[in-house]
Amino acid sequence: MILEIKSSSGDPESAAEIANGVADSLTAVVREISPSSANGSSRISANLVDEAVVPNVQALPNKPRDALLGAVVGLLLGVLAALLWTLLDTRVPNETVLSQVVPAPVLGSISRVRGNGERGLYVAREPLGHTSEEFRRIRAALSYSGVAEKVQRLMVTSVSPGEGKSMFASNLGLTLAGLRNNVLIIDADLRRPRVADYFGLEGSVGLTTVLLGDVSIEDARMTRPGSTLDVLPSGSIPPNPAEMLTSDAMKRLLEEATARYDYVIIDSPPVMSVADANLLAPFVDGVIVVVDAGKTRRNQLIQAAASLESAGGRIVGLVLNKVRRKRKESAYYTANTDA
After folding, report:
1. Is the pLDDT at 85 greater than 90, yes or no?
2. What is residue 100's three-state secondary structure?
3. Nearest-10 crossing angle of helices 130-145, 327-338
């Protein structure tokens, strides 16, 4: 029988000494307790086969093995975390997901831009930039939406506040006016108006002033120099926005604007915040819903679309805003802009 003795210690010399000490002690004990034969010799003998030597490599912890196990466990946890995040994250990160959430045409996407730039008028600030090109694609896609039915009066809205609907309406108006179309932007968000701020205009006289009959639309509108774009600010904020937007005066204003302009763009409040967008939807030819790629939830978007359609609105397109821009595309368009 061969017995193997193992000892562990924080010091390699101590480990070897302990193993050899146990072997010597065991040999002596076996000699003492072994029965003797007739001639007085021990019937059982214990001999040392191999002496313990000081180890050169530590046994514990096993770094290569532990590193491999850690990598495998980390990979599994990472895959599980990614799957869990995908299931729990209900945002709309790209156009493919957007087209699957709501059965409406996706007109395009707008890349995320740091800062507000020149009050958010990216088309005017960088006409050859990446963002301007994205608006031109949306303008082209919008022209196809009006093939079956005329799309002249457009309402721009969003699911919730802060998704960029006013910025989109302003830049879309500039893009349409770039083809020498007569365009009128009406700020119908009578709760948190933003269009006048984007264009740097005084918004105290505007839509509410015209609806009250104090001034005409001709006197209240403001023309952007060097373009065919007119802006009708919101005017003073009224205590009853919903009643003013559904009044006969609002219907007459839209009819007058439709007869004078090629496109009338109406910036309305978010769908899920107040009922103003649903009330305005039947008065326009089509609705564009702006979706924030990093904020809007799919269930919210579904509810907003259903709410607009139940109110009689026609969604002519969806626009995905604040999409992460690829570096290669950014470098390409920057080079064209600098040239």
Report:
1. no
2. helix
3. 100
Question: To the nearest 5 percent, what fractions of the chain are helix, strand and coil?
Answer: 45, 15, 40
SS3 209: helix
In sign, the C-alpha dihedral spanning 19, 21, 24, 28 is negative
Residue 301: how many other CB atoms lie within 10 Å: 25
| Confidence (pTM) | 0.76
- What angle do helix axes 130-145 and 165-177 make, rounded to 10 degrees? 80
Query: Would you give the DSSP letter of residue 127?
Result: T
Q: Beta strands 222-223 and 229-232: pairing type? A: antiparallel
* Cβ–Cβ under 8 Å, residues 263 and 183: yes
Q: Are 289 and 260 in contact (CB under 8 A)?
A: no
User: What is the four-CA torsion angle of 156, 158, 161, 164, rounded to 10 degrees?
Assistant: -60
Pairing of strands 263-267, 153-158: parallel
